[in-house]
Amino acid sequence: MTEVLSVSGLSVFYGTSAQAVENVSFAVGDGQVVTLLGANGAGKTSIMKAIAGLIPSRGEILFGGEPISALPARERVKRGIIYVPEGREIVANMSVRENLVLGGYHLAARDRRTRTEMVLDLFPEIANKADRAAWRLSGGEQQMLAIGRGLMAAPKLLLLDEPSLGLAPMLVRRVFDRLAAIRRESDLAIVLVEQNLAMSMRICDELHFLRGGRIIGHRTAADLKDNAARQEAIDAYLGAA
Ligand code: ATP
Fold first, then answer.
1. Residue 160, CB half-sphere, CA atoms under 13 Å: how many?
2. 137 CA to middle of ligand 1, Å?
3. Ligand 1 proximity of 48 Cβ (cutoff 6 Å)
4. Whose CA is nearest to atom 25 of ligand 1?
5. How many CB atoms are closer than 10 A to CB 188?
6. Whether pTM exceeds 0.90
């Protein structure tokens, strides 16, 4: 399997003293879904922002085999790295369709139209409401819109920050099922930040457990198939710090 993303020795500092991420290394293969799991403050968002180029970091980040650490965020977007932040950040007063168009702003008008239709096909829940203002969508639909907007940019790597945040379990399941379908239909690689192990197991291939800015454990989805193994990982890695 070819590696899409390779992160080695990644560290993130806020200011001169606070270290949010310490010497983190992991890789994502073509079409793979890799989950970063950990409690609040474990450093997950900082890792995603560092990969997207939104905050400075140390260490090496390779994308498609090439170093990207020195590239500005917009250049990383052009290469196909798209970050979908937690909290959705859609434009409330614009329609669903307009929000999608924003995600494909750099595409030619015709490609933008084709892609908008493709994304709406993927999310029938929001397709019915394409001309409604985004604030009128439910939480789950807003999350679908945020992911859909990310997909507008034809990403090679989607960085998804807690898509389940603030959603009822049934809606989370729906969002994750859509993600699983997208992943089956394309070669898209995904880094998923989650606090919910069971949910992320629905789509991911590998999991890295984080605590205090470090990776403290690694499992494949196959390792965690049975309940006992899953509980053991939860106790070992997600229990009290
Ligand atoms: P959450 O799920 O709450 O977003 P997280 O695992 O994504 O948690 P980060 O948001 O990456 O964790 O935060 C890691 C550490 O860095 C925390 O101790 C946090 O307080 C700190 N931190 C995050 N952002 C900043 C910032 N802008 N300035 C200073 N410290 C920060």
1. 33
2. 29
3. no
4. 14
5. 22
6. yes
Calculated CA dihedral for residues 119, 121, 127, 128, nearest 10 degrees: 180
The C-alpha atoms of residue 101 and residue 185 are separated, in whole angstroms, by 22
Residue 209 has pLDDT above 90, yes or no: yes
Rounded distance from Cα 226 to ligand 1 centre (Å): 32
pLDDT digits (tens, 9 = 90+) for 26-57: 999 999 999 999 988 899 999 999 999 999 99
* Dihedral sign from CA coordinates of 148, 221, 172, 122: positive
Q: What number is the ipTM of this complex?
A: 0.92
Atom of ligand 1 at shortest distance to CA of 18? 30
Pocket lining: 164 vs ligand 1, CB cutoff 6 Å = no
